[in-house]
Write a structure and sequence with these properties.
The protein is of the alpha/beta class. It has 20 helices and 11 strands. It folds into 2 domains: 10-179 and 337-395, D-Maltodextrin-Binding Protein, domain 2, CATH 3.40.190.10; 182-335 and 414-454, Periplasmic binding protein-like II (D-Maltodextrin-Binding Protein, domain 2). A 5-stranded mixed beta sheet has the order 2-1-3-11-6, sandwiched between helices. A 4-stranded mixed beta sheet has the order 8-9-7-10. It has a two-stranded antiparallel sheet with strand order 4-5. The chain is globular and about 65 Å long. The N and C termini lie close together (7 Å).
């Protein structure tokens, strides 16, 4: 097993309690007092007046919502913010190129959670605790404990027992912005028309998918990703967690040949059978469109779709959708994924970037961004009665967050290579080229070789 990173410090204690609270429905917090903070009215927002910072982020609902608010930050602070928005698929290579130089182009970046361990392990992004420990930098009314605990762990903690999670030795490298979990969205109009009960288990999902595929014209079962590589791996992981399957065991040995994994793949094969044509080639956009355009009766995946469902320019089913908890198999665990923000180690103005990081994820800005389509990352937002009145899905989301699993995907530095290899094998199952058992056996040794080279075994 790889060595742990860093030392246990004050913020780690606080974060451990925050994560526990998120997973245990807001249990009691017992942590040391944070460093003294200045009063909100005394905080110096203009301490970096005249500096310029560059923020690199994707075309994504969360960032599309906060970007128009940045001029208010510039007016508040006197800091100039240059934005570099690009397609998600271009982010990683652009960021690595910049962060590998002595002086980088970026002061603040949005990263997919899959990249956090790679970036932290490579020294490309900075630990955030030193910033939070400085009273003149830490926003007084930021309320860190209000951030969803599972999102904090999944987005920002690196260095614990599993390298990519919290625990002893972990440090914080990112803050969630554009994070998500999964739940069930369904066509409530069709369910009511045909007298269908909302499925609570995977067995019931199969039966509902079969009914719509076989009995209702022009409507299929479940919208699902299946494209070879990352997309197929994402879909497998999404369902593997409730089925009790995992990529590795506690000794980092491949575990995806287990009965639970095979059962997951058999479920996915049925969803291809009962799904719209082309399911085995769907990426996220293909999956979104299948549900948004009324091709399928159900969607189980990232909660970020809610903003699209409510947008009549993208959706043909606005006002026709209901929401429910992620169905159960052996567990009811849901995914954690999406984006967070981090400060590159070679940032030229890291302290000014830290102010922007806090401001963008503060309670007030979060609320305004959510009203414009961003997914929430704070408990206070999803639990707010006014927000639940406006966004009925928040009532389900608030409950689903109790089951959000920060360990549903092993985002170790080697994950990019493993993710692709596993996704090719899963797609071969979905296309019928291989049986689940054969596909998983064939990829087992190549993935173990990756782990061997990386030093996970004695």
């Amino acid at each position: 097993m790889k060595k742990k990173r860093g030392k246990t410090r004050l913020l780690v204690l606080v974060l451990a309690v925050v994560v526990a609270a998120g997973l245990m429905a807001g249990g009691a917090r017992e942590a040391e007092e944070a460093p003294d903070r200045v009063a909100p009215e005394e905080f110096d927002w203009r301490q970096f007046e005249g500096e310029t910072i560059v923020f690199n982020f994707p075309a994504h609902a969360a960032y599309n919502a906060v970007a128009p608010l940045i001029p208010e930050f510039e007016e508040l602070t006197g800091i100039t913010v240059e934005t570099d928005q690009m397609a998600y698929m271009r982010l990683h290579d652009s960021q690595v190129l910049s962060m590998s130089q002595p002086q980088g182009d970026y002061d603040l970046i949005a990263m997919v959670v899959m990249w956090k361990a790679e970036y932290a392990d490579g020294g490309l992004i900075q630990p955030l605790e030193p910033f939070f420990e400085q009273p003149h930098l830490a926003m007084p009314d930021y309320d860190f404990d209000d951030l969803v605990g599972a999102y904090v762990e999944n987005t920002g903690l690196v260095g614990g027992d599993k390298i990519y999670l919290g625990g002893e030795g972990a440090e914080l490298y990112g803050i969630p912005l554009g994070a998500e979990t999964s739940f069930l969205a369904y066509r409530k109009d069709l369910f009511e028309e045909y007298g269908i009960d909302v499925p609570e288990t995977y067995d019931e999902v199969v039966e509902v998918a079969r009914f719509f595929s076989e009995e209702v014209d022009d409507v299929y079962g479940l919208a699902m990703r299946g494209a070879s590589g990352h997309q197929a791996t994402h879909a497998w992981l999404l369902h593997a967690s409730p089925f009790g399957a995992s990529v590795f065991d506690e000794n980092w040995e491949p575990a995806f040949t287990s009965p639970e994994s095979i059962e997951t793949l058999e479920f996915m094969k049925k969803m291809v059978e009962y799904g719209p044509p082309g399911t085995a080639s769907f990426d996220q956009d293909g999956q979104f469109n299948a549900f948004l355009q009324g091709q399928t009766a159900m969607y189980i995946d990232a909660s970020v779709i809610t903003g699209l469902i409510g947008n009549p320019e993208r959706s043909a089913i606005t006002g026709k959708v209901g929401y429910a908890l992620h169905p159960r198999a052996r567990t009811g665990l849901s995914q954690t994924g999406g984006f967070g923000i981090a400060i590159p180690s070679n940032s030229q103005n890291p302290e000014a970037a830290f102010l922007l990081m806090q401001w963008l994820t503060s309670p007030e800005i979060e609320r305004r961004a959510v009203l414009d389509g961003a997914p929430p990352v704070r408990y206070s937002t999803v639990n707010d009665p006014e927000m639940q009145e406006r966004f009925p899905e928040f009532k389900v989301l608030a409950e689903q967050l109790h089951y959000a699993n920060p360990d549903w995907r092993p985002i170790i530095p080697e994950w990019g290579e493993i993710n692709e290899m596993l996704g090719i094998a899963i797609n071969q199952v979905l296309t019928g080229d291989k049986t689940p058992e054969q596909a998983m056996r064939d990829v087992e040794q190549p993935i173990r070789d990756v782990m061997q080279r990386a030093g996970y075994y004695d």
